[in-house]
Amino acid sequence: MPASPTSRERLWLAFVNADALASFDRLLAWMHAAGVLDADRHASIGRRATLQPAAAAAALIDARRMYAALRTLADRGAADLAVRDASAGEINRVLGRSTGVRRLEQNATGAWRRTFSTVGDAFAGLLLPVAESAADALVSNEIARIRRCASASCGRVFLDQSRGGRRRWCAMATCGNRAKVRALRARRRPAHGERARTRSAA
Ligand SMILES: [Zn+2]
User: Fold this and answer.
1) Which domains does the chain have, with CATH numbers?
2) Nearest-5° angle of CA 166, CA 170, CA 173?
3) Considering only CA atoms, which of 62, 35, 59 is closest in space to residue 48?
4) 73 within 8 A of 83, measured Cβ to Cβ
5) 154: CA distance to ligand 1 center in Å?
6) How many angstroms is it from 174 CA to the middle of ligand 1?
7) What's the CA-to-centroid distance between 166 and ligand 1, angstroms?
C-alpha cells in the first residue's frame, strides 16, 4: 500500500520516501493517497492509461527520472550546490511543459485546497505538484534542513524542523527507538575481555 504522507511531510519528500514507481497504477494510487489526485481524476487518468498504455508507460519513465533527481536532491542537495543546480534543471523540465487550469476548491469536509487540471496531455502535468513542492524547498532554502535518516537500513528523508537542527531519525517511534534499543543492548552487553575477567573472578 502506498504510504500517505503526514500533514507535516512535504509532498516531494513523501514522493521520495514512497515506493510508488513499480507501475503506473501504483503511481496513481500513491498520488491519490497523497491527496494530489481526487477520486474523479484518479479514475479518469486510470481509464486513459488503459486506453493509452504507451503514454502511461512514458509517464512512468518520466516519474522515475523525476524521482532520481529528487532522491539525489534530498540526499545531497543540502550540502552540494552542483546537485541543487542539476535538480533545478529537472524540476524546470517538468514545470515548463505543464499547462492547465488552477482552481481553488473545497472538499467534502469544507477544507480549501488548490487544484491544477492539465489541459491537453493528461499525463504531462501529473508530477507538477511534486515538482512545485521541490521548487518550494529551494526557494525557501528549506533544502538546508533536509536530512537522510541516520539508520543505514532506512533511507527515508525528512525535513528537520527541530530547533537545533540535529534531528537524526525519520521517526522516533520507529528508527529512533530501534537505535536506542540497540545502543542500550550494546551498553548492557559487556565487552569480550570484560566478560572473561568476570568469569575467571567467579
Ligand atoms: Zn528512518
Assistant:
1) 11-162 (1.10.3300), 171-202 (no CATH)
2) 105
3) 59
4) yes
5) 5
6) 7
7) 14
- All three cell numbers of 92, joined, read 524546470
Q: How much is the CA Rg of the chain, to the nearest whole Å?
A: 22
- Residue 24: which H helix or E strand, with range? helix 24-33
CA of 170 to the centre of ligand 1 (A): 4
One pLDDT digit (tens) per residue for the chain, 202 residues: 334 444 457 999 999 999 999 999 999 999 999 988 889 889 999 999 999 999 999 999 999 999 999 999 999 999 999 999 999 999 999 988 777 788 898 888 898 988 777 776 778 788 988 999 999 999 999 999 999 999 999 999 999 999 999 999 999 899 999 888 888 888 887 665 555 444 444 4
CA of 194 to the centre of ligand 1 (A): 33
AA identity, residue 105: E
72 Cα to the center of ligand 1, angstroms: 17
Residues paired with 118 in a beta bridge: 100
Instruction: From residue 53, give the alpha-carbon distance in Å to each of 91, 117, 126, 142.
Output: 25, 21, 15, 37
> Full-prediction pTM beyond 0.85?
no
